[in-house]
Amino acid sequence: MTLTELDDLLTRRHSCRAFRPDPVPKSDIENILTSARRVPSWCNAQPWQVIVTSGTETDRFREALLHEAATGIPAPDLPFPASYSGVYQDRRRACGWALYESVGVEKGDRAASAKQMMENFSLFGAPHCAIISSPRELGPYGAMDCGGFVTAFTLAAQALGVASIPQAAVATYGPFLHRFFDIPDDRLILCAISFGYPDHDHPANAFRTERAGLDEFVEWRG
Ligand SMILES: Cc1cc2nc3c(=O)[nH]c(=O)nc-3n(C[C@H](O)[C@H](O)[C@H](O)COP(=O)(O)O)c2cc1C
């Protein structure tokens, strides 16, 4: 594979926020997982564990998660960012506004933006969800290794025409997720990846995010 081909795959991948209901064949999901596990991890510990839902199991999870989001108390295993300031706040706002503009939510319309946010908990209509966890004892480096796995999963999926979105929002309700999936307390639930075939006609999929130039994040020495 050339860098141009790899860059094309990286550029074509984007976070999908509206899926068609048709399932992805199990052999394709297996191939995505088989490729994703190739990522490096410290000491080759491969700390990721993945629960993949399909069919009625995804629907059962979606219903329970929507109920939890309406009634539960946020308690993620991994603390969410304390704040976003400066350029990080700017970028966060830019991608939020791009989504809201795409789906027709006016700036300042809190009810409409909250409704769009709730789409996270219906998994954006995806037919599959992967729950990613890491051993508590490996701490932040286990989470870091799993981040690489999540990225590779999304790229391998894209290579097969399968759209995806990593979702920290799903990890909001830690105790509920541990109970629902029977995940022991010695594992940290990091995020979910909802995936399936994209609904190309949905406005939520009509925008793309920008990236900062090298001059904004690289410091050359020597
Ligand atoms: C760890 C992680 C968690 C994320 N959580 C959410 C989420 O809960 N909800 C959401 O809509 N997008 C979520 N995203 C998607 C990001 O918003 C998205 O990757 C970013 O805006 C860049 O856009 P792109 O993926 O389309 O290139 C998450 C991405 C990552 C890597």
Quick summary:
The protein has 8 helices and 4 strands.
Please characterize this protein's 3D structure.
- It is a single chain.
- The protein has helices at residues 3-12, 26-36, 55-71, 86-103, 110-118, 139-159, 174-181, 214-217, and strands at 49-53, 128-135, 163-167, 187-196.
- The protein is built from eight helices and four strands; from the N terminus they run ααβαααβαβαβα.
- It has a single domain (13-206), classed as NADH Oxidase.
- It is globular.
- Strands 1-2-4-3 form a four-stranded antiparallel β-sheet, sandwiched between helices.
- It is an alpha+beta fold and 222 residues long.
- Helix content is 44%, strand content 13%.
- Helix 2 crosses helix 6.
- The protein binds flavin mononucleotide.
- Flavin mononucleotide binds at residues 14-15, 95, 120, 165-169, 191, 209.
- Residues 14-15, 95, 120, 165-169, 191, 209 line the site of flavin mononucleotide.
Describe the protein's topology.
Blueprint: H1 3-12, H2 26-36, E1 49-53, H3 55-71, H4 86-103, H5 110-118, E2 128-135, H6 139-159, E3 163-167, H7 174-181, E4 187-196, H8 214-217
Antiparallel strand pairs: 1-2, 2-4, 3-4
Helix pairs in contact: 2-6
The structure holds flavin mononucleotide.
Pfam families: Nitroreductase
GO molecular function: oxidoreductase activity
Domain Nitroreductase: 11-197
Keywords for this entry:
single chain, 222 residues, alpha+beta, NADH Oxidase, four-stranded antiparallel beta sheet, 4 strands, globular, binds flavin mononucleotide, Nitroreductase
